[in-house]
Amino acid sequence: MIKIDYKKCCWKDGKCSSCGCGGACVGCVEACPVQALERKKKLEYHKEKCISCGACVEACKHKAISMI
Ligand code: SF4
Ligand code: SF4
């Protein structure tokens, strides 16, 4: 299981809140092997799909995700 710190995550209201990602935060969603993360209005976590691999934690440049 992971925990998302929405204060640190740059994806807000369906877009990158301008942190230098160039408008599309490439990171956790692309790293997840089982599509457990999805960028909607905010970053959504489908915990039933998560296999706790930790790839998203490594991939997030804002350190917004941690394992719990
Ligand atoms: S990589 Fe980090 S900042 Fe980007 S959407 Fe994922 S949690 Fe948010
Ligand atoms: S821990 Fe692995 S499976 Fe779970 S959301 Fe992160 S990348 Fe996806």
Can you tell me about this structure?
With 68 residues, the chain is of the alpha+beta class. The chain has one domain (2-67): Alpha-Beta Plaits (2-Layer Sandwich). The protein contains two helices and six strands; from the N terminus they run βββαββαβ. It has helices at residues 28-31, 55-59; strands at 2-4, 11-12, 15-16, 37-39, 43-45, 65-67. The strands form three sheets. A two-stranded antiparallel ribbon has the order 1-6. Strands 2-3 form a two-stranded antiparallel ribbon. It has a two-stranded antiparallel sheet with strand order 4-5. A hairpin with a 3-residue loop joins strand 4 (37-39) and strand 5 (43-45). The longest helix has 5 residues, at 55-59. It is globular. One iron/sulfur cluster (SF4) is lined by residues 2, 31-32, 34, 36-37, 50-56.
Largest sheet: 2 strands, antiparallel
Given as residue ranges, the uncertain stretches (5+ residues, pLDDT < 50) are none
CATH class, please? Alpha Beta
Number of helices: 2
Write down the Rg: 11 Å
Mean pLDDT equals 93
CATH architect. name: 2-Layer Sandwich
